[in-house]
Design goal:
The protein is mainly alpha-helical. 68% of the residues lie in helices and 0% in strands. The protein contains three helices and no strands.
Length: 62
Amino acid sequence: MSMSRKHYRAFADILRYAHECYPEAKDAIDQLTRGIAGICAEDNRAFRRQQFYDAAQPEPPA
């Protein structure tokens, strides 16, 4: 079974939450983001890495 957009969004949500809760771990979370994006891209040729990277980043402060 391949992953769906729902799975990709869930991964991005988890990574964004990790960024918000643990800003001191930014480098490690960014490494995890790249690793997960690589797995997703292998699973789906149409996977858009940049869109995933953007979704995994914390919201800018208002």
